[in-house]
Amino acid sequence: MSETSKIEQKWQKRWEEAGIFESDPDAKRQKFFVNVAYPYMNGAPHLGHAYTFIRADVYARFKRMQGFNVLFPQGFHATGEPILGVVERVRNRDQDQIEALRALGATDEDIKNFAEQGPEFVVAYWMDRWVRTLKSAGFSVDWRRSFVTALTPTYNRFIEWQYNTLKNKGYVVQGTHPVVWCPHDQSPTGDHDRLVGEGESPVEYVMLKFELDDGTILPCATMRPETAYGATNVWINPDGDYVKAEVDGKAWILGKVAAEKARDQLHKVDVKEEIKGSMIVGRVAKNPVTGLKVPVFPAGFVDPDTATGVVMSVPSHAPYDWMGLHDLKQDMGLSQKYGIFQEALDAVVPISIIKVEGMTENPAVEVCSRMMISSQKDAEKLDEATDEVYKKEFHQGVLRENTGYPGVRISEAKDKISADFVRKGWGEVFWETTSEVVCRCKTRCHVKILENQWFLKFSDEEWKRRAKEAISRMNLYPETSRTQFLNTVDWLKDKACARKSGLGTKMPWDRDWIIETLSDSVIYMAYYTISKTLKERKVDADGLTDEVLDYVFLGKGDAKSASKKSGLDEKAIEEMKGEFDYYYPTDVRFSAKELIPNHLTYHVFHHVAMWDDPRMWPRGVSVNGFVTLNSQKMSKRFGNVKMLSDMIETYGSDVTRMNIVGSNENMDDADWRDDSIDAFASRMRMLHSLSRDIEKSKRKDMQNPDKSFISMLQSRIKSTTEACELTRFRSAIQSGFFESTNDLKWYIDRCGGIENCNRDVLEEGISTIVVMMCPFAPHTAEEIWEGMGNKKLAASSMWPEANEGKADSESESGEDMIRQVADDVRQIEKISGIKPKKAVIIVAPQWKFDVYGLVSKNKSADFKTILSMVKEKNEAAVKYIQALQKRGELSGNLVSRQSQLDLLEEAKAFIGKQIGAEVEIQDAETSKLEKARNADVRKPAIFVL
Questions:
Q1: Cα-Cα-Cα-Cα dihedral of 332, 338, 344, 349, to 10°?
Q2: Mean of pLDDT values over 484-507
Q3: Any alpha helices (H) in 400-460, and if so which ranges?
Q4: Which of residues 396, 413, 433 is at a domain's end?
Q5: Which of 160, 544, 798, 911 has minimal CB crowding within 10 Å?
């Protein structure tokens, strides 16, 4: 075991023995409830998790050190299909799954137990891994309140109460809606149950019924039905799998996968024959909108598994369609293969149906030419071209006279035209996902129209209004995330809240349904407040009746009545209510920015639905960006997913914490960089070493370096505190750790070594830096803190407060001047290329200080007025006044002339050591050097020999 590991384990044991992270209600102290999204139990924590989780722990430690009674619990999520999917795949000896588990550290014996003992073992295994890893990372969690969803009976009872309440208030309704559906699991697939496609949702297409000469329908799916007026041909993938089927009593040809989708969207589908798309190529189909007969052409870019697998071509307005025709005309071999004659190709010309000011009649043709797109293989350029044309047409375009809707704006056309086409029998609604969705069972999902499904009525306008009210009250870090929350509320529609399979809580009034992953994880923060009591008193789930929970969480009824009817001890009920009333609501919830469009906004909706009292609504949310590894996206495909436990073992907990949390802030993506490790580690070692040498310092008088260092320390305390409050931890580390230790190094060097420092100043400085470091690097902070003779734990010490009485801007300015002089000499050396043997530093004459004072005090006065105040009105004074007035703002504390002379004289040995040359200080009033004329009140002149 490394020395670092020994130190970390030593302090983790001390914290646990002291119980300093265990929080109980205390009427004399103000509470602060910190929460981080609970992790799913299908793997171990990696760096992506670590960024969010460590941010939460840093904040909990920070607020605890500010004197708050901090509640920071941690639960675990097991609801849904993924865990059962893992068990099933292991039992089926799926080698990809088995190798993935091995990569996460599972042994062959563990994997055997996954298969034999099932989901309970899987959950217990990963929970143990998570708890051990978080403890090794120094997390300040109250572990007495931990629980896991789905497998905890009292939690299931809590969720049943939640949904009974929502249903009684009309927020859970039954209806028929499109949902993302897994055909393998036979269940709706929520975001957390997806391997691919988190955030994707159903989107409405229109199937236009193009008709072959024998009456067979080719259903062309489109999101822009208005473009049917410009359709010149139909595209089919000649190598794709299609079917001939009877759909609602009529003959159709559509993609093989599309037939299954149509069946799940309430169509009667009877597949008659499987065919290749090549069997349709070369035929002619009638456009139901225009009545024109158009040819069916081959196109490899058509995905037979997307929508219906049949696409209409609009080359005037779709760059892909234009290039498809271009390529087909160029490839005579392909044309001949499918019996397509040149005359048929030449007959296809673009039909312009949309007018946009400043664009040609055929914008797709023009943009492809301008961007020099040579074929369909230029996919990146084609995507860019498509985006350009579609955006301009959508925002600025109107339909031409050759459509049935002349003058109608494109942005307003879709809904009206879709409804008209469907009403006239030209088309039907078809649903598809906005992008590919793959269930965690590895099955590709599609959209199903689900009947008699249970939905959360997010479309309710009053519910949306209350959610927006809650968001307006919340502290959001960063503030820029507020717009995303509000936008999500606007577009959010009714959402399926139950599925047929997986782990979870059964819908209390309809036991055939199980409440899905994102629907049972939105008010669990309230469960933390009662979890400890439930475990300590061994409360049975049957005792948690709705009446009990109504009293505990909503204040309805009374404990005596609830106890009598439930059989639960009245004291236990009162204890739970007391805990909830004391701790709720959450003060800051930590999560990632990708959860704003779902989980984080859902949790706002649910809180305003469950609690009428705004005082119970969430008070704050802090979101962060993604995590990259050495500027590369972390991915199993790249083989660069790093486990948190491995990083701790390699670098130690504190360096790992600092490196990840200090890599970025707000919603910008964090980047773990291996080359940043030493910057943190070396500073910690330096600080530890200096703390051991404090006793070497003997001086007691206060000199300028002492005053300046203590003054700067107040600024660092203030900026670090402000950054921590806003959860801007990169800024906090920069100020409280790097800049503060830079100040400390300067101070020690300035004093001529640690033995020449003021003992009290040095001790105060190091102590303050260690305390500010404690939330970020708690083990190292504790080790240094104890070594300095402190008996109390650093984690229990008070966060420093800036003392304005210790601020001394003049002393800071003096040290800045010394630093600047040394830098100026080095710059002269760099430019001249000559190593100086001697540097003469010349302080400006008194008259310049007098003129500077006049100009700074009379900022609005003109040149003549200032000149009239000057005693000696010579040419030098005139030029100096003009130069100062050109500078504009004359801000910052000015070190007096005599102080400059005294300070530079006192520091000349230090400056000489810094620049490696002899130093002489001169007064411009007595100096014989020509350079003396250049001496300024803020910038002494420098002459090097």
A1: -70
A2: 94
A3: 410-423
A4: 433
A5: 798
Do 629 and 640 meet the contact criterion of CB atoms below 8 Å apart?
yes
Nearest to 815 by CA among 713, 735, 923, 665: 713
Same domain, 358 and 243: yes
Residue 441 contacts residue 183 (beta carbons within 8 Å): no
Please say which residue of 433, 467, 495 terminates a domain.
Answer: 433
Whether the Cβ atoms of residue 368 and residue 323 lie closer than 8 Å to each other: yes
Residues 789 and 867 in one domain: no
Domain count, the chain: 3
CATH number at residue 774: 1.10.730.10
- Output the pLDDT for position 442: 85
Measured in degrees and rounded to the nearest 5, phi and psi for residue 455 equal: -125, 150
Assigned domain for 834 exists: yes
Mean pLDDT value across residues 478-507: 95
pLDDT in tens, 165-211: 999 999 999 988 899 999 988 888 888 788 889 889 899 999 999 99
Mean pLDDT of the chain: 95
Place of tokens 């929508």: 307
- Residues 617 and 841: their CA atoms lie apart, in Å, by 63
Both 763 and 839 in one domain: the answer is no
Residue 629 tokens read as 């590894």
Q: What is the pLDDT of residue 859?
A: 75
Are both 348 and 215 inside the same structural domain? yes
Bridge-based pairing of strands 588-592 and 31-36 is parallel
What is the domain range of residue 832? 824-944
DSSP string computed for 799-837 = PP---GGG--HHHHHHHHHHHHHHHHHHHHHHHH----S
- Residue 825 has φ and ψ, to the nearest 5°, of -65, -45
Same domain, yes or no, for 207 and 337? yes
* pLDDT, position 637: 60
Residue 151 domain-assigned (yes or no): no
pLDDT score for 861: 78
Distance of CA 573 to the CA centre of its chain: 38
Asked if residue 328 is part of any domain, the answer here is yes
Q: Same domain, yes or no, for 229 and 344?
A: yes
CATH label of the domain that carries residue 428 = 3.90.740.10
DSSP 3-state percent helix, strand, coil across the chain (nearest 5): 50, 15, 30
pLDDT by residue (tens digit) across 67-79?
999 999 999 999 9
Rounded Cα gap, residues 46 and 54, in angstroms: 12
Task: Please give the Cα distance from 165 to 170 (Å, whole number).
Answer: 9
- At 889 the pLDDT is 65
pLDDT for the residue numbered 174: 94
* Nearest residue to 880 via CA among 942, 813, 943, 933: 933
Whether residue 713 is found in the same domain as residue 854: no
Number of residues in the chain: 945
The alpha-helical segments, DSSP class H, found in 550-669 are 559-566, 570-583, 601-610, 644-651, 653-661
Phi, psi of 285 (to 5 degrees): -130, 145
- Shared domain for 916 and 799, answered yes or no, is no
> What would you measure as the largest C-alpha separation in the chain, in angstroms?
110
Does residue 859 sit within a domain? yes
| Nearest-angstrom CA–CA distance, 186 and 183 | 5
